[in-house]
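Summary for the steering committee. The consortium agreed at its last meeting that each partner would contribute one worked example illustrating the joint modelling workflow. Our contribution is presented below. We chose a case with several input lines so that the handling of multiple components could be demonstrated. No manual editing was applied between input and output; the record is shown as generated.
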Amino acid sequence: MTATLSETATLTKIDIRNVTKDFEVRDTGGAFTALRGVSLDVREGEFLTLVGPSGCGKSTLLDLVAGLTGPTAGEITIDGTPITGPGLDRGIVFQQYALFPWRTALANVVFGLEAKGVPRREREGRAREYLGLVGLTGFEERYPHELSGGMRQRVAIARSLAFDPDVLLMDEPFAALDAQTRESLQEELLGIWGKTGKTVIFITHGIDEAVYLGQRVAVMTSRPGRIKEVVDVSFDSREGDLRADPRFGEYRHHIWTLLRDEVAAAVVQERKVAVPRG
Amino acid sequence: MADVQTGTRRAAGPRDTVWREPAGIGQTRRARPEVVRVASKAIRKSAAIVLLLALWEVLPRLEVFDPVFVPPLSENLAAWYDLLLSGQLLEHFQASLTRSLAGFGLAIVLAIPLGLLIGWYTPVADLLMPLLELFRNTSAVALLPVFILVLGLGETSKITFVLYACSWPILLNTVSGVKTVEPLLIKSARSMGLGPIRLFQKVILPAAVPTIFTGVRLAGAYSILVLLFAEMVGAKAGLGYLIQDSQSSFRITDMYAGIITISVLGLLFNLLLLTVERRFSTWRT
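What follows is the complete predicted structure of the assembly.
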């Protein structure tokens, strides 16, 4: 209803409106505020990266969008409908892969299809197709412990893509990988995003990664997290080494400046009191 | 055999990025020395047992041990063979195995569902855990007289006794198997919209299977250990009875024949359960 008023050229996919999230502190009975008054709209089909100092509530925000927890105040809508719980219209990729170790790569991808209720006959073919998309043809029968970290994360990405969600939520998915694997996965992710047209929210603590991947970079403040600024990132051409583009350096520096004070504040906070990561 | 696999592993990155090379590569490398390696390993692994058996034969003959109380191995084996031919051994063996398996089987059937309930539903855990904690720390052996008083000297008291002793490892492992499922896996499954029942069926249960099975294997060993005790206290058949009865009527070689049978039985049973356990937990490495 409000969409008609503020509507620009692009459609809003996810609307985060004035969201606050408090957690109860078990020992003291008090509450601690992870997010305060976060507002952000994510456009249909865009690649949005989210950076912020550690403990600023990035992951909490992702959990809220995923529907794994509910906000204390405010509202999050997807396609105009409030989010009330988890759903297969959103797929999550976790930093630690979260693959089921007793299932093969193929069976892990099939898991999401079972959850969605895809007919048994179609599951395997579709799972193979998505494993192929992430470059894992020939590894279908491997168990997660038989795969490298990069390959595990590919399986996890294939699992989230296979049930065909509109939105992909990625929580520092490449943080545990070595630099080379990370860069090749970043490139492949952009390729997959281009092919599938998903809306992606990608959390990272790497400024380079945020600038490289995101069409927009949302910068968060230290706890309680708010959106400090949303930076539009655009390059004349993405050909060649993007990281060598002078504009890459400018974006990088701008975001670094935005983050610097927040990181300093976060460090002070962490020294004062041990808080749950988020 | 286990170290064959680690031999073909290599580290691919700084952080648990270990993966196995295709099977073919490793096989060509270990084709020839395999026979030698297996043979030398077999010798190393059996040396201590062979030595024990040899000493058992020689020391009594040299009268280092009194051959009346510790007869040489060969005499014990001859007695074992006589017992086998007369059919007595089979009778005792059957009696023991039936009781063990009955108690063990009942323990599996009762303790696994109970453990799943306790592990999954906190109110059930709150209600039952204090009671279970009390009984767990009460030795099964201390309760044997009670079982005999209440259930008599027959099969029921013995099977119940085995059931009681076997239930603990299965129950406690099942509870911990359910409780220690990686929270991230649960979160991941929840994010895909799985409700509590399917979450349990597709995530909790398969994740807990290896831990549960470790409990089952422990219980298997207990089933034979504790039964023997019950049979020594009061029975008319069974390997425990055979051992006790032979000793008190001074048929010393028969006593050792019974002891040898029970230790081989225990070994084989454990081996069988280990094999099954491996099948259930190939993914846990």
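Residues 196-233 of chain B form the longest helix (38 residues). The beta strands of chain B are 9-11, 18-20.
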